[in-house]
Design brief:
alpha/beta, five-stranded parallel beta sheet, five-stranded antiparallel beta sheet, 24 helices, 24 strands, 22% strand
C-alpha cells in the first residue's frame, strides 16, 4: 500500500477560461494529489487567500483589475506565487522577480503540461525559504537568550566592587583610545585637519581634548600627543572663567558665534581667538566642536588704526598752531637777520641777536616736530650718521636730565647711517631724555646706544610690526620707575600722561611716534615696574654716505629795482617782507588780501612779481593767482605759507609746479628766490 500524501491546494488566478482549462488538464493525471480553485480577478483571489489556506498561487501577469504583481505584494508572505504571462520578456521577468514571485513561466503548451513539475519545484523552494526563516527565528531566539545570560553575568560582576572599579578604569582608557581612533577616521577628518582655522573637539564636561587640527598645533606650540586626553583648562590653553562663559552662552543660545577669548600658547604668547562653538554627536555622545579664528594681528591693526585716528584729530590742531607760529617766527627770525646785517662784528649787541636767532631756529624745529606729530609736515631728510647726531646733542641731553642722572653713550663702530631729518631726530632724543628724567626723580642712569640691527620675518611675526631688512637702531634706557602693561599701551596716545596736572602735556612721546612713523621707522617699548624702561627706535639703514665736498661759490647778487606786489594778511609779516625787499632796492606795493592783490595788479602794469600768502581772507592766494593769470597769463607768482606743501595740496590750495617758500623763511633765502624768478627768461 502506497504512502498517502496530503492534497496540495492550488489557487489559479486566470481570467482566460481556455488557459484555466489548460492548466487543469496539466493536473488531470494527478487529480488525487492536487485541488485546483480558479479566480478571475485580483480581488477575488485575495478574498479566497484570506478565507482559505492555499499551498501555492498560480497567477496571470495581467488581470482585469490589476497586475499579478499586486497580488504578489499582498500574499507573498502567505503562500508562494508563480507568475504566468503570455508574452515573456527580460524586463517583465526582472519586474516579476523583484515583486517577490517565487517563479516566472511563459504560457506555452509544453509549460501547461509541465505545470505539476513547476509547482513541485516552487513548493520545494518555498520550503527552503520557510526553513531559512525558521532558522533565523531560532538564531534570534538564541541571541536573546545569550543577551539575557550576559545581563545576568554583568549583574553578578557588579557585586565585585573593587574588580568593577579596575575594570571601569580600563574600559575608560580603552574608550578614549577607541574614540580618538574613530574621530581620526571620520569623513571630514581631512577638512578638519587642513582648515586654516583652529579646530578642536572636546568633551562637554571637562573640556578634554579628543582631537585637534594642524592649525591648533601651529599656533599653540603643543603637539597632538601633548594635548589629547588633557583638559583645555589644566593645559592652560583657556582659563576656566572664559570656558564657563562659552558654555553658558552655548546653553542659552544653542551656539556661540564671534566671542573673543584670550588663549595661551605653550611658549607664553597670548593670542586672541574669535570663537564659534556647536554641539555635535560622535558615536552617540555629545561633544563640543570649537572653531577659533586667530585675530591677534587684526586687533593689533585695529589698535594702530585707533591710534592713527587720534593722531589725525590732534594733527589738525597741531597744523593750525604751526601755521600761526611760523608767521611769528618769520617776523622774529627776519628782523634778527636784518639786525645781523646792520651790526658790525664787534658790536656787543650782535651776540644777543645771535641768541635770539638761535632760539627762533629751535622754535622752527619745534614747529616741524608738531607737523611731524600730525604726520603732515615736510621732512627735510638727508643721509646722516646717527652717531654724529647723538654726539651733537649729548651735552644738551645732560642739561635736560640734570646732574643727579648719569648719561652713558655707546655708539656703533664705523658709523650708523640713515636718511633722516637731523633736527627731528634730535627732538626725538630730547623728548625721550625728558621722559626718562621724569621717571627718575631721585636720580639714576640713562643709556643711549646706537647699533646695526637686522629684522627678519620671525621678528615681524612675534612683534606685529616692521618690515624685514637692515635698520639703524637707537636704544634709550633708564633705571627709573618703569610702567605696567596698561600704561605702556597708552604712552603714544596724544595728551596721555601719568604726571600731575600742569607737569606734562602728554604730547612728548606722541611727537616721537609721529616723527619716527614719518621716517618710515617704528618704536618698540619694554618696561617693568621698579626696573626701568627701554625705547628702541628703528630707522631704515643705508650704506655710509660720501661726505659732501664743499666748493666755494660766489655769493649771488640779490639786489634789484623791479616792482613787487606783496599780498599778506599778517601785518607784521607784511612789514618785515616789505622792509627786506626795499632794503635791497625793490619797489613794493602792498595788498592785505587776495581781492586787493588782484586790483593792485591790474592798476600797476609795472609789477614784475607777485609775492603772496596762500591763506588770506576775502579771496585766497590760489583764487587770486587764477584771476591774475586770466588778466596776464605769464605773470610770475611766488607763494608763501606757514602750512606745508602737502597740507596745502591736500586742500587743493596749490597746483602742481607752483612756486612756494615755506615760513619761517630767512631773508637771504627769500631774496635769492625772488631774484631767481625775476631773472627767468
Amino acid at each position: 500500500m502506497g504512502t498517502a500524501y496530503p492534497v496540495k491546494k492550488i489557487l489559479v488566478v486566470e481570467d482566460d477560461d481556455a488557459h484555466a482549462e489548460l492548466i487543469r488538464r496539466g493536473f488531470s493525471d494527478l487529480s488525487g494529489q492536487y485541488e485546483l480553485t480558479v479566480a478571475a480577478t485580483v480581488k477575488e483571489a485575495l478574498d479566497r487567500i484570506r478565507s482559505k489556506n492555499y499551498d501555492i498561487v498560480l497567477t496571470d501577469y495581467l488581470l482585469p483589475d490589476g497586475k499579478g504583481g499586486d497580488l504578489v505584494a499582498q500574499s507573498a508572505n502567505i503562500a508562494p506565487v508563480v507568475m504566468m504571462t503570455s508574452h515573456g520578456s527580460e524586463q517583465v521577468a526582472v519586474e516579476v522577480m523583484k515583486s517577490g514571485a517565487i517563479d516566472y513561466v511563459v504560457k506555452m503548451p509544453e509549460v501547461f503540461d509541465a505545470m505539476p513539475r513547476i509547482v513541485e519545484r516552487a513548493l520545494r523552494e518555498w520550503d527552503h525559504i520557510l526553513e531559512h526563516k525558521r532558522a533565523e527565528e531560532a538564531l534570534k531566539l538564541q541571541s536573546h537568550r545569550l543577551e539575557h545570560e550576559v545581563a545576568e553575568r554583568q549583574l553578578a560582576q557588579e557585586a565585585l566592587l573593587e574588580q568593577a572599579q579596575l575594570l571601569k578604569k580600563e574600559i575608560a582608557e580603552r574608550q578614549l583610545a577607541q574614540e580618538t581612533l574613530r574621530l581620526s577616521e571620520e569623513k571630514f577628518h581631512k577638512a578638519f585637519d587642513s582648515a586654516p582655522l583652529i579646530m578642536v573637539i572636546t568633551d562637554m564636561e571637562e573640556g578634554v581634548f579628543l582631537d585637534v587640527n594642524r592649525k591648533f598645533v601651529e599656533l599653540s606650540g603643543y603637539s597632538r600627543e601633548e594635548v589629547l586626553g588633557r583638559a583645555s583648562t589644566s593645559l592652560g590653553w583657556i582659563n576656566p572663567a572664559d570656558r564657563k562663559a562659552l558654555l553658558d552662552k552655548l546653553k542659552e543660545e544653542g551656539h556661540v558665534a564671534g566671542t573673543v577669548v584670550t588663549l595661551h600658547a605653550k611658549d607664553g604668547r597670548t593670542l586672541k581667538g574669535e570663537y564659534y562653538c556647536q554641539r555635535i554627536t560622535v558615536d552617540g555622545c555629545q561633544r563640543l566642536l570649537a572653531i577659533a579664528l586667530d585675530i591677534t594681528e587684526r586687533m593689533k591693526l585695529e589698535e594702530q588704526l585707533r591710534h592713527s585716528q587720534k593722531l589725525e584729530a590732534v594733527g589738525v590742531l597741531a597744523g593750525g598752531v604751526a601755521h600761526d607760529f611760523n608767521n611769528i617766527l618769520t617776523v622774529i627770525g627776519g628782523y634778527c637777520e636784518l639786525l645781523k646785517l646792520d651790526l658790525p662784528p664787534d658790536n656787543p649787541a650782535r651776540d644777543k641777536v645771535m641768541q635770539i636767532s638761535a632760539a627762533a631756529d629751535r622754535a622752527a624745529n619745534l614747529t616741524r616736530s608738531l607737523l611731524a606729530f600730525s604726520r603732515k609736515g615736510e621732512v627735510k631728510a638727508a643721509p646722516a650718521n646717527l652717531n654724529d647726531i647723538v654726539k651733537g646733542v649729548e651735552k644738551f641731553l645732560q642739561r635736560i636730565i640734570g646732574e643727579d642722572i648719569t648719561l652713558s653713550t655707546s655708539l656703533a663702530e664705523g658709523g650708523l647711517w640713515a636718511v633722516v631729518d637731523s633736527g627731528q631726530i634730535e627732538q626725538v632724543l630730547m623728548n625721550l631724555a625728558a621722559n626718562a628724567r621724569d621717571a627718575m626723580p631721585k636720580g639714576g642712569r640713562l643709556f643711549v646706544e646706537t647699533e646695526h640691527h637686522e629684522i627678519d620675518a620671525a621678528f615681524v611675526h612675534a612683534h606685529g610690526f616692521g618690515t624685514p631688512g637692515m635698520y639703524a637702531m637707537l636704544t634709550i634706557s633708564d633705571t627709573g620707575q618703569g610702567m605696567d602693561e596698561g600704561t605702556r599701551k597708552k604712552i603714544f596716545d596724544p595728551f596721555f600722561t601719568t604726571k600731575v596736572v600742569g607737569k606734562g602735556t602728554g604730547l612728548g612721546l606722541a611727537i616721537v611716534y609721529g616723527i619716527i612713523t614719518q621716517h618710515k621707522g617704528f618704536v618698540n617699548v619694554y618696561s617693568e615696574p621698579g626696573i626701568g624702561t627701554t625705547f628702541r627706535v628703528y630707522l631704515p639703514a643705508i650704506k655710509a654716505a660720501e661726505p659732501e665736498k664743499s666748493t666755494a661759490t660766489a655769493e649771488p647778487d640779490v639786489r634789484g629795482n623791479e616792482t613787487i606786489l606783496v599780498a599778506e594778511d599778517d601785518l607784521h609779516v607784511l612789514d618785515l617782507v616789505s622792509s627786506i625787499l626795499k632794503q635791497y632796492g625793490y619797489d613794493i606795493i602792498h595788498a592785505a588780501n587776495g581781492l586787493e592783490a588782484v586790483q593792485r595788479f591790474k592798476e600797476n602794469p609795472a609789477i614784475k612779481l607777485v609775492l603772496m600768502d596762500i591763506i588770506m581772507p576775502v579771496m585766497n592766494g590760489k583764487e587770486a593767482a587764477e584771476t591774475i593769470r586770466e588778466y596776464q597769463p605769464d605773470a610770475r607768482i611766488l607763494f608763501t605759507s606757514g602750512y606745508t606743501a602737502d597740507i596745502i595740496r591736500s586742500r587743493s590750495d596749490l597746483d602742481e609746479g607752483a612756486e612756494l617758500v615755506m615760513k619761517p623763511v630767512k631773508p637771504m633765502v627769500l631774496l635769492k628766490k625772488v631774484r631767481e624768478m625775476l631773472d627767468r627768461p
